[in-house]
Amino acid sequence: MIRVSFPDGAVREYQAGTTSLEIAKSISEGLARKVLAAKVNGEVWDATRSLEQDSTLQLLTWDDQDAKSTFWHSSAHLMAEAVESMFPGVKFWVGPAVEKGFYYDMDLGDRKISEEDLSVLEKKMNELAKQNNSYIRKSISKEEAVAYFTEKGDEYKLDLLSNLEDGNITFYTQGAFTDLCRGPHIPSTGVVKAIKLMSIAGAYWKGDEKNKQLTRVYGVTFPSQKELDEYLAMLEEAKKRDHRKLGKELGIYTMDDDVGPGLPLWLPNGTIIIEELEKLAKETEQAAGYKRVVTPHLAKESMYLTSGHLPYYKESMFPSMELEGQKYYLRAMNCPHHHKIFAAEPRSYKDLPLRLAEYGTCYRYEQSGELFGLMRVRCLHMNDAHIYCTKEQFYQEFKAVNEMYLKYFGIFGIDKYVMRLSLHEPSKLGQKYVDEPELWKETEAMVRDVLIRTGTPFVEVPDEAAFYGPKIDVQIWSAIGREFTLATNQVDFAQGRRFKLEFTGQDNAPDTPLIIHRAPLGTHERFIGFLLEHYAGKFPLWLAPLQAKVLPISDKYQEYAENVLQKLKNADIRAEIDDRNEKIGKKIRDTELQKVPYMLVVGEKEMQEGNVSVRRQGKGDMGMVPTDQFVDSIVVEKKERRSEQ
Ligand SMILES: [Zn+2]
Ligand SMILES: [Zn+2]
Fold first, then answer.
1. Collapsed DSSP state (helix, strand, coil) of residue 377
2. Whether the Cβ atoms of residue 571 and residue 631 lie closer than 8 Å to each other
3. Which of 63, 540, 566, 576 is buried most deeply by CB count within 10 Å?
């Protein structure tokens, strides 16, 4: 008998050789139908693999990311089976799961897969899925494996085999297809209920352009048609909301070849959004007791040697420049500059917590192939702050930071978010993690406690902490359900020591502060990219570059329109007049396209009574109201930063 421990702490005994799937069945048939893979002693396994020793077991279903990856990777095998039946003699390289779906790289010889072939392949995959073939794992000697692929004439698999050690090699077979693979896979093909092959691309073998170009086919699969339909609808919507497209249409930002790749130029409309975000951050941080600082964008090499950015982070930094025999680097992070401000004068426990905030400009080297609109850039403006506090103050400070995140989510209508609490791995202390076992335990417990006590949804991820402390990665979802990684909230008990930061404790002895790194609004670049998609460019009033447009029905009402405009401007509303000689219908349509929150139509009746006829973006005609009343209401809506549109 073996003892199996479950995540809820239960321990049960089973016959040695029992599979995870059989264990699931013994719990309930319904559960067994949903099990796609199993996490055994922390490693993802086939659910059909037998357990031979005492183990920890977590049954994985579609909701687990590891199960999704297993499902998609298994779908790559299914696609390969369909491709092989359509193109006999095809040779395969690798077929991994990706963030959403999978691909397989293949060598079709002189043949080509066309877009039309994709639907034929989908049909074939559906047929094969319905056969509900099991994915059968078989350990195989290197010699036999080499013989198999030599016979098949697949030099790509032979290349993979040449790097594998005998005794560690497995084959997987489903239906008529056998692949060299380490696994894991789903139990059988029948759970793949919906299939979409997305695209075909060329990919050089091993990513080297001197090598042969292989054909890469991307696909995605789901356990139900409904989920596939929803996913495709979301992609369609995401295309309409693409921040690069909207960024151009709405005059938010531009790129210029002479400035350089990944260096966005913020246009006037984008700059208004930046300033509104900074205003929000300043107000919020001031109320929370932060102090603002301003620091240079570069520093001498010595500072980055102290911080450890050099040499460990060097690849992500711009190359150095030399001045007066000294090397300088553009900064990739703001922390070291803030640490120097902490160190600039003697500190006592009475000065703590010290909270230093700055919308700091950083420069990071991202490979040109990685650059993507505002999402991946080389120059970024970060909603940064560092909180220096004592151990006793930590809980309260971390809680306040967490509450700030939640407050922002409320303002931006971000309903779905998850905090990923990244923890250290005790066996890697002194290597991947600072060797402070007690501090790790203490701070992790404090962070967990904050999340639990504030009812914040979170998941724990082992072995993903920063070198110097536990961190929270924040994932948010836009209105159309696309995921973004926003920012991290980190605890740091190492940098303080590296920079020899000290304060005098209550007992008069020197002590090192804990540091919290936080950036709830991330960077302007990524956050505004997110907001463009989230709002589909229809910014709430307080963020909208142009908040109201006055539309006179004809030039007879120009003077009255100017009168209305002046009232708006006096109330600090960003407004304009459409004084073109156009029909009112056209003026309304054009203003709709600009996504201006309010349109104020003025004609004879409005002028006689001192009124405006209000049209709200997305809501249409809201009727006629006295101008002063409208101005009062728009001022309140702006001040409250309402997110309804
Ligand atoms: Zn595989
Ligand atoms: Zn920092």
1. coil
2. yes
3. 540
Nearby residues for ligand 1 (ion, Cβ within 5 Å)? 181
Of residues 382, 405, 359, 387, the one with CA closest to residue 290:
387
Over range 424-433, report the average pLDDT. Answer: 87
* Cα(109) to centroid(ligand 1), Å: 23
Ligand with minimal distance to 80 CA: 1
Largest Cα span, the chain: 95
Q: What is the 254 CA–ligand 2 centroid distance (Å)?
A: 28
Distance 335 CA to ligand 2 centre (A): 4
Distance CA 613, CA 623 (A): 5
Q: Which residue's structure tokens are 């073109």?
A: 580
Query: If DSSP states are collapsed to H, E and C, what string results for 140-191?
Result: CCHHHHHHHHHHHCCHHHHHHHHCCCCCCCEEEEECCEEEECCCCCCCEHHH
Mean pLDDT score, 506-523: 95
Q: Which amino acid is at 422?
A: S
Residues with CB under 5 A from ligand 2 (ion): 335, 517
How many A from CA of 641 to the centre of ligand 2?
Answer: 28
Phi and psi at residue 179, to the nearest 5°: -135, 150
Tell me the CA–centroid distance for residue 495 and ligand 2, in Å.
10
pLDDT tens sequence across 177-214: 999 999 999 999 999 999 999 999 999 999 888 999 99
How much distance in Å is there from the Cα of 234 to the middle of ligand 1? 28
Write out the DSSP string of 39-62. Answer: EETTEEE-TTSEE-S-EEEEEE-T
594-641 pLDDT, tens digit each: 999 999 999 999 999 999 999 999 889 999 999 999 999 999 999 999
Question: What spacing in Å lies between the alpha carbon of 490 and ligand 2's midpoint?
Answer: 8
Ligand nearest to the CA of 102: 1
Q: What is the pTM of this model?
A: 0.85
d(CA 473, CA 602): 50
